[in-house]
Amino acid sequence: MFRFFLKLIITLGFSVTSLTAFCQKNTATLPGNGNPLIPGYFADPTVRKFGDTFYIYATTDGNGGGHGPSQVWISKDFVNWKMKDMNWPTSNYYWAPDVINGNDHKYYMYYCQPVDIYGASATSPTGPWTPLLPDGKSMIPNYFIPGVITLDGQTFKDDDGKIYMFWGTWGTYPDHGCGVGLLNPDMHTFSKKAKIPNTIAKDFFEAPFMFKRKGIYYLTYSSGFCENETYRVQYAISKTGPMGPFVFGKNNPVLSTNSDSTVHGPGHESVIQIGNDFYMVYHRHNNPHSNGGYHRQVCADKITFDAEGNIEKLIPTHTGVGLLGKSTVRAINLAYKKTATASSFYNDDYRPSFATDDNNGTLWRPAHNDGTAAWLKIDLGEVKTIKQVLTQFEYATWYYQYKIEISADGLKWDLFADKTHNQQHGSPMIDNGDVKARYVRLMITGTEYPGLFKSIWNVKIYSDRAIQDEAGQLTVTGQVDSTRQKGLLVSFDADSLQKGQSVPEFSNKGVLGGTFVAGGKAPYVDIIKGKKALVFNGSQNFESTIQVPRILCGNNSYTVAYTIYSSELLNENPVLSWTAGESEHRGAIFGYGKNRDFGVAQHFGVSDLPFGAMPSSAAWHQIVITYDGVFEKVFVDGVLNNKENKMLFMQPANKIFFGSKTNKTLFLNAAVSSLKVYDISLPDSLVSKSFNIKSHDDIPVSLDADKLSYGKLTEWENNGSLGGKFAALGDVKPIVKDICGKIAVAFFGSDNLDFYKVNKDTTNNHSLIASVFLPDPVKYNSNQRDKNNLESWAVDHENSAGKWHLLVRTKKGGKVTDFMDGAKVIANIQFDNIFKTLFSKTSGGNGFKGAVSTLICLAQSLTPGEVAQITAIWFKNFHPVTLKTPDFVIPPHAVSPTLIEMTAAAHTAEKEDLQYYFQDEKTSAKAGAWSSDSHYTDFKAVPDHIYSYRFKVRDNFGNVSRFSAARTVSTSQAQFEVTNFDFSRQADTSNIASGNSNWSGVVGAQQAGANDNIYVADQLLTLKSKGSNWDGNLPYGPFIYKTIAGDFIAETEVADLSGYKERTVKGNNDVGLMARKAITLASENTPEALLQNSLFPAWNCGNLFTNFQSGQRMQTNTQGGWNFGRYLQIQRSGNIFSIRFSADGKIWNDIPGSPIKRDDLNGFPLQVGLFQSTYGPQEGFGTFRSFKITQEKKASAK
């Protein structure tokens, strides 16, 4: 407060009266505010005073999750702070540090990573630190005290010299609370420990801190959620001692969000005593608030007490507490409130004047985060002596490269300091000289972190050297983000590709160049709703040959645009990705899904972006995602759909993936006509103007027989831009069938189709292209064709019967021209009948006799040269599907009485774009759809029946093979051993140890809870527990299993689980099937190797697949919430595992990510059974109605 008043008096000459009025109108953006205390993003502060020096130890925030580096802020007066790096820790997380001076004259530092607390010692408050325990071992693991989740360790030294530690997080669970322990002299073990329950420390969430005043022990702590406005400070008191007993304090909460939210989410406090006064140091969210609460700033306010010693409500201020010691800076800041101009500024919340207001809560931010230099110019009003410039950049722990120039007239500039090759971070950055000037210009040329804005909290200019030593230290990265934007990096457009063409690779037309190569089977080109597009079937992708450029890393800007069609809105549908790993804010996966968290952009964590309103299915949409370093926006068809504030930390993969996630756990199932990636954020106006999708009427009609079901045709859906359907007229319907190597629609002379809109549309210039089978020869006159245009693949009229031909009719200016196989012919009745059949309501009884496989209408009249080119492509793509007779590579065989599997020979050496059609010969109605998978599973088999299967093959051009020879298979139950587990008696679960049970063993029966956590009642088996896990951490939840060698199918029906009847999520209850590699006594330290198929309604997951191997726990789900399939199945075939769910136990669906290959389980017997776990303190249960294991009798079961 003193600092604030003094500056106004000296600089502005205000009277006391005007000062009083000014303070009454104080806001967060007023010059000279003392809160925040330090410039930058720091959280969870612990304030200490050792000797005559103040120290603030805090989480390094604003970097995506408290990822360090370790640092401390130091001040002699509590106003002028400088940052100093420390040597420890160097871990991924650096959360909530605390330092205390021990009774052995050493200093002890404690910090936490998720659910672990670590310690170190040093001879000074700033290190160097030496860990208290070897090999990175934590001193307080999770649940070190039952009911206390480990985090936020804070120490307290009582008057008798005893040192205590308090810790805890998520203490709101039932039977949870805050932990406290009396430290031994070794400062890492405890002689006593206890839990302060949340029934006393009400709403205890985290951040306990104790201080003592006049014999009363105050346990302060934070409640609510740290990411939003609910975060607040509460307290309990004890008049007995640090370990209680406690009573809930009066006036709670004593610190909370203020009325205008400029103090937002204050908490994670510590307290310092200066004389008889006490001050609370805490963090709050930055202004304007960044998304997710990851940009917090440290503040301080004075605590007041009533006569009984109760803490009174704190009114959080922006002025702060001012000097708590003799000021270390006596010189006047010449830049304070002086006029500042800049190269640009992002918006009015980040204007240039904020760099000269001596307010650590306001920031100048340039308009762009690209590689161009940004400058700030300060006019001192008159020529002054300048000896020192202090710059407080936005991030104290990343370096900036810059230069400072000075001028007397604003025209001629001289160099004051050159840091354009700087690799030193710190705050403040100090530059010394001795010049006279009126203008000071700071030009920032680069940043250490890619995409970082060249932003400044404050610039301070002195006529003396206000600070004598420099802060910061050399960083080790050495790489500066000086990249320049290139514009359009990636560009793909399907317009130049041919329909039916398989695309194994394509050249990138963007400035990055290179090639995108198909990662497996190549997608093909099709016409959908009038647009050419690449069709991805859910198992295909492209991978770039060029590396991800640095300009797409970190927080750099981008625009991603794609035109996409999806017949069904899926939960997740990845289009593009270029990042590795799944750490928070580090991903860049862009998609077209209905997931309500990350349907559009998956960055992991609160940075994910969903659609605001989901686009419609079965329609083309233009999706544009822009990010300018602050806001990410998604536009649908040129209209803003959603936007969010965020900061990203994108971690690049080694290449760009088009059509899948980077880890290839999920692939695109949609069609894409264009894809663009820019390294700039395109302006909203340009997106609306240039990317708004227009009507595409260049292909009004596109008909493909290979998209139809076999049999009578009643209507033929148009894939052209006009949409609609062709309706079959008359009593005799056309037939969809295979004709001479093509899937086609056969006409018999008295049938035709009605599509009136095409009649109207085709009155203008157009072209009709038809692939036609002619049973009779075409009759020519001697002058009916131009022999000069006849190519080698054309046929004479005598040989035209019983063959496929390409017919083209063009119309231009009323003139109609017909072509057959590229040769011009004079119009005749046969041609007329073909087109009348398709485009007239009546055929006069003289309809077309023959077949059509494809028909396309173009809204243009083709030239003879274009007709010849199209015909040549048609002949090139008309050929046998495969040179070999189709046959099974794995014949049909029953793997259970109701499940038959088979695999066709793929012939991938000849073609990669094949699809397969499997059929039971005995009943042609029992047939699967066309599939790109050569493996087929029939889930509709009936026990004790004989089936006869065959298959045929087609390609993307409609070429089709004959059926293979049929193979028979029996589903006789005699060939299987089926173990149905008895849920009618408890003995089957209680007699496992004696061997008098179908079960082989049980895990977690005692570890996870009471003895009755596995029991049978009402012919149901129930597993229940609390505080249990199956993520590699103890204790395990209940798991009852049978050890199985060889292939098997395990199935269960879940009858009930926690919250199901109420449809209310209760904790993280996980219930289902598990197949686990046995861990013997000799291999207790072996990492878990297991697969789980479970029901997990929390987070809207629904059916959940967990693939746990090599320490990595990968999960996919259906996003079904309570709308899950209660029937679960795991099938093993060697090292291939299929994870399925069903609503009725008959029709099974693979969960995303299934099937999965697990070489580490190949050949090993597995524990197969039922499990339950809670991953938290809330009790949960799962009830099973049935469980059975099916094996062929040749396989053995133990």
From TrEMBL:
**Family assignment from sequence similarity:** Belongs to the glycosyl hydrolase 43 family.
Q: Any idea which residues are catalytic in this one?
A: D44, E206
Keyword Signal: yes or no? Answer: yes
Organism field: Mucilaginibacter paludis DSM 18603
* Lineage, highest ranks first: Bacteria, Pseudomonadati, Bacteroidota, Sphingobacteriia, Sphingobacteriales
InterPro entries registered for this protein in UniProt:
ConA-like_dom_sf (IPR013320), FA58C (IPR000421), Galactose-bd-like_sf (IPR008979), Glyco_hydro_43 (IPR006710), Glyco_hydro_beta-prop_sf (IPR023296), Glycosyl_Hydrlase_43_Enz (IPR052176)
Which segment of the chain is annotated as a signal peptide?
1-23
Record keywords: Carbohydrate metabolism, Glycosidase, Hydrolase, Polysaccharide degradation, Signal, Xylan degradation
Which BP terms from GO are recorded? Answer: xylan catabolic process
F5/8 type C domain location is 316-464
The name of this protein is: Glycoside hydrolase family 43
Which residues make up the annotated site Important for catalytic activity, responsible for pKa modulation of the active site Glu and correct orientation of both the proton donor and substrate? D152
SUPFAM superfamilies to which the protein is assigned, alphabetical: Arabinanase/levansucrase/invertase, Concanavalin A-like lectins/glucanases, Galactose-binding domain-like
- Which Pfam families did the record assign? F5_F8_type_C (PF00754), Glyco_hydro_43 (PF04616), Laminin_G_3 (PF13385)
Gene Ontology molecular function: hydrolase activity, hydrolyzing O-glycosyl compounds
